[in-house]
Write a structure and sequence with these properties.
Blueprint (H helix, E strand, L loop, with lengths): L12 H10 L5 E6 L5 E7 L2 H7 L9 H7 L4 E6 L3 H15 L15 E4 L8 E4 L10 E3 L5 H14 L16 H4 L13 H15 L3 H17 L3 H17 L14 E8 L3 E10 L2 E11 L7 E2 L9 H7 L3 E2 L6 H14 L9 E4 L6 H12 L4 E3 L4 H39 L7 E10 L2 E11 L2 E2 L5 E4 L12 H20 L1 H9 L5 H7 L2 H8 L11 E5 L2 H13 L8 E4 L6 E2 L14 H30 L11 H11 L2 H6 L2 H5 L6 H11 L2
Parallel strand pairs: 7-12, 12-13, 14-18, 18-19
Antiparallel strand pairs: 1-2, 1-3, 4-5, 4-6, 7-8, 8-9, 10-11, 14-15, 15-16, 15-17, 19-20
Helix pairs in contact: 4-12, 5-9, 8-9, 13-19, 14-18, 15-17
Length: 686
């Protein structure tokens, strides 16, 4: 029976052409949807028809991200506007509302940290996070900050200046913790300060991360003087200490523009064939108050070209600005990257954070539209300029130089990982580089709370989104009896058996044949053993690793090899083990380790995988052990919830007295009927 699903527009030329003709050549916003009517991408343009048509031209070299998006488009919607500025403002609102997957130009990974203020909570928390989540729209994120150490130092000092909430959860139920006694917290866990008053404190802290420290000082100084006039010397002293602490935040500034009162941002980038590293310096009252970093992908077909044509009559600063500028083929200009970064950045900040002036390294393709949109948001004129000389040009050169340093660091890291993968491929005689490496380890204490971990390294870097925990289900592995061999065999079996059952077409056919309505066809295949063997042929594993690393020696490796051979996967998967003591690498079927040096790049890569798997397993084991220690014996009784447990313990005072109680005594407790009393008695008297 043919599928009733709508074909993608790229595969339905007639419907695509009809849809494109309906789109007018006016300013506006376009929305691309998939087969589930989800919005994939939201964009703006001065001429909607031309912009949308460009996605479907064969001659158009799209980035891999956008090319993937185009293959999923089933429908295109548009909203016409009167001006380009209205289109930009509308796009910003729609992107913030719908959060389309393919609208993210900037990588939101764990490279740079953010600072989060949870305004969605009655008593907001302040913490550093490596992941910007689109959870509650009330929460505010500041960053990403390039200098992690400076961010942590700033937050530490702020927590000394202002009494803030220190813990996500209260430490005690009926009293505040030590932070309240030493003045580091106002006792929010016990409601000792109203939510309105506490949020006023958080608003002052937010001004610091908005670059409005001087504005905050201008507010605090009159408050201190007023408190002194009212003879409220304790409050005046507290505000005085806050002012001194805030002044110390900017005391160590190394970048200063003398006699400059303009609020200014300066942005520049450095790029190679794969990535663009963007730096944004926030200058407030002549001082650098923040340095943000962004990463963007450059299309694979883009080639960086160095501009070498510099006029002899050009100034020295013009020559310096020309040297190192990048131009990208296939229509991807550095100015377009900077514009997109600025759009995404200012969409996520409050209007008071928008500066009056933005200095850019390259001319923006739609700089006037962006300036109008920012001016409307700020309520004051915002100027975007490309400085060519004097102090502002030197500031851009400094920002560009910092972007180049960060890009060079990334390149060194990438080269190190490439060298390590190449060396590992030579050591293990692999046909290709091991782009995906999976590492496994077991953690327990004499068999108790046995768990396993799987970590994944892609291109030599940890891919945390692919990490997995496993609880060992083997009933023979318990406290006092451990078996790492059986545990590893169980984990590898669960890892690949689930995949092959879901993704193998042979397994799907067997499942159909085992239906009761097809018993005759099943009998023609023979025994169930033959069917089972058929299901393990022609496996298709979408996330198949190039290399599996087992933490252990020959015994652990043999156990894993046995289970992979049983599933007919040994020929598809390459597995090795790394022993801890001498960092020896063992291969299946080999009694002696490979002749390697523990300081080789390939061996060091395996060691990083092994250490990460060990860390991940141990942390999960500690969590499980901690939960078990907090667990009550009463949790194992069916039907006995937390409330009834409290009633029983309040009546009998301890589990020992509860265990000695008779059926009649148990039934006398409020909320415990004869049936539940029988279950409790049977649990303690099996």
């Amino acid at each position: 029976m043919p599928s009733t699903k709508t074909l993608p527009l790229v595969k339905d030329a007639e419907r695509l052409e009809s849809r494109l003709k309906e789109i007018p050549a006016v300013p506006g916003v376009y929305l691309m949807r998939d087969e589930s009517d989800r919005i994939l991408y939201i964009g703006k343009s001065k001429k909607l028809r031309n912009r949308v048509r460009s996605y479907f031209r064969e001659s158009q070299n799209l980035s891999p991200r956008i090319a993937m998006m185009v293959q999923q488009v089933r429908e295109i919607e548009f909203i016409a506007t009167d001006t380009e500025a209205e289109a930009l403002a509308l796009e910003a609102n729609l992107v913030k509302q719908h959060q389309p997957y393919f609208n993210v130009l900037l990588k939101d990974d764990k490279k740079y940290p953010y600072l989060c203020i949870t305004w969605s909570e009655e008593y907001p928390r302040i913490f550093i996070t490596r992941k910007r989540r689109a959870g509650n729209q009330k929460d505010r994120y500041y960053g990403p900050y390039v200098d992690t150490g400076a961010l942590r130092s700033t937050l530490h000092l702020i927590k000394r200046i202002f009494p803030l909430r220190q813990r996500p959860q209260p430490l005690f139920k009926d009293r505040p913790c030590l932070n309240y006694d030493i003045g580091r917290c106002v006792g929010v866990c016990q409601g000792l300060m109203s939510a309105e008053d506490y949020q006023k404190i958080i608003q002052k802290v937010a001004m610091i991360f908005q670059g409005r420290t001087q504005e905050l000082l201008d507010i605090l100084e009159p408050q201190m003087e007023q408190a002194a006039e009212d003879l409220n010397f304790e409050t005046a002293a507290r505000i005085r200490d806050q002012i001194k602490g805030l002044q110390s935040l900017s005391a160590g500034q190394k970048v200063s523009l003398p006699n400059d009162t303009v609020s200014r941002d300066a942005i520049a980038l450095a790029a190679d064939t794969q990535h663009a590293c963007i730096q944004l310096f926030q200058i407030r009252a002549g001082q650098l108050v923040g340095r943000l970093g962004f990463m963007a992908d450059v299309p694979a077909s883009a080639t960086p070209l160095l501009q070498g044509d510099v006029s002899e009559n050009s100034s020295h600063s013009s020559q310096k600005s020309a040297i190192g500028k990048w131009e990208f083929q296939c229509g991807v200009e550095p100015g377009a990257i900077l514009q997109r970064v600025l759009e995404e950045h200012y969409q996520n900040v409050e209007s008071v954070e928008i500066p009056s002036e933005i200095s850019v390294q390259y001319d923006l393709p739609e700089g006037e539209i962006l300036a109008d949109w920012l001016s409307n948001r700020k309520g004051r004129k915002v100027t975007i300029l490309t400085p060519q000389r004097q102090t502002k040009a030197e500031l851009i050169e400094m920002v560009e130089r910092n972007a180049e340093y960060e890009l060079a660091r990334m390149q060194r890291l990438s080269d190190r990982n490439s060298q390590a993968m190449q060396d590992l491929a030579e050591i293990l005689d692999l046909p290709e580089l091991p782009h995906r490496i999976e590492g496994y380890d077991i953690s327990h204490i004499q068999g108790s709370d046995a768990v396993a971990s799987r970590v994944v390294f892609i291109d030599g870097l940890p891919a945390n989104q692919h990490y997995r925990h496993y609880k060992i289900k083997n009933p023979e592995i318990k406290s006092g009896h451990s078996d790492d061999f059986a545990s590893l065999a169980e984990v590898l079996g669960r890892r690949f058996r689930d995949k092959t059952e879901k993704e193998s077409s042979a397994t799907s056919n067997v499942r159909d044949l085992t239906d009761k309505r097809n018993e005759d066809e099943l009998s023609n295949l023979g025994s169930l053993k033959e069917v089972s063997s058929l299901s393990s042929i022609s496996h298709t594993i979408s996330d198949k690793p190039d290399l599996i690393m087992i933490d252990g020696g020959k015994g652990q490796l043999s156990a894993v090899v046995a289970v992979l051979r049983e599933m007919n996967l040994l020929d598809e998967l390459r597995v090795v083990s790394l022993a801890k003591q001498r960092e020896e690498i063992f291969l299946p079927g080999e009694s002696l380790p490979l002749p390697t040096n523990s300081e080789q790049p390939g061996v060091q890569l395996l060691r990083r995988v092994r250490d990460e798997a060990h860390r991940f397993a141990v942390s999960f084991h500690r969590d499980q052990r901690s939960q078990r220690m907090k667990r009550s014996r009463l949790d194992d009784i069916p039907g006995l919830g937390h409330h009834r447990q409290k009633l029983l313990l309040a009546h009998f005072r301890s589990i020992d007295y509860l265990r000695l109680a008779t059926l009649e005594q148990l039934a006398e407790v409020a909320g415990i009927g004869p049936r539940l009393a029988q279950q409790i008695y049977a649990y303690f008297h099996p």
